[in-house]
Amino acid sequence: MKVIFDSNVWQIIAIPNDPQYVNEPLLSEFKKIRQAIIEGKIEAYLSETIFTLEAIKKVERQDFFSSRKPKIDFKEKVVGNTINTGITIGPEKGIDFNERPILKKYFEEAIALGFRIISLPRIGGMVNEEIEDVRYKLENGEFSKYFDIACEVSNRIEGNGAGMSQIEEIGKAYNPTKWLKGLKKAPPTEYKKIGKAVAEWADGDSVAICIGLECDYFCTRDQAKGAGNKSVLSFDNLEWLKRDYGFETILPEKLATICG
Fold it and tell me: pLDDT, tens digit, for every residue of 87-101?
């Protein structure tokens, strides 16, 4: 069974005996899921956005994104009497685990447990360099299939006003052609909205990754409760995601029951 875990559940599975979870009413269920991962009953996945987008503190998200730009490398190579120039557009350095020691602790426990981390590549996207050596890598044919499906789903999510489209919309309100620069111009009254938009971006990518990987479930505690009508986890979006792609969310307690 392949399951991708949301940011509101994976840490409890990684370290269920952490003192902060002493009052968790479903702790026994989380321990069952953990054991199922150990026994190989569950292939556990995490979206890399947990360690990039969601690792940025909410109060810092506006400044972080408004100051970002893709890293562009130019390389020249002399071939005979001609000079070939190559241009590579990639992400600049993103999150530093040294600034998030608690997150790093859970990350290391999750990797030791068997969680696999996978990304949805974007031009100029964010990276966490400590993920590089442990990121789950698909073979060429598998990656092509995964990438095509995940991108298709991501585009549809954003076309419905969810996922990454929300932060772009905020930025374009202040700069119609360059939304990242627009974020820098956004007033303090937009801080909270930007923080939520980054979380929605992460959710949208996580859903696209889940479908691209052909996971059986997206384990989350959200279940569309409190989700706005534009959230990727709203009832309307969940309806077409299930109809067209077989996407299903599952509560951790239900997953624990399935695992036995």
Answer: 333 445 556 677 788
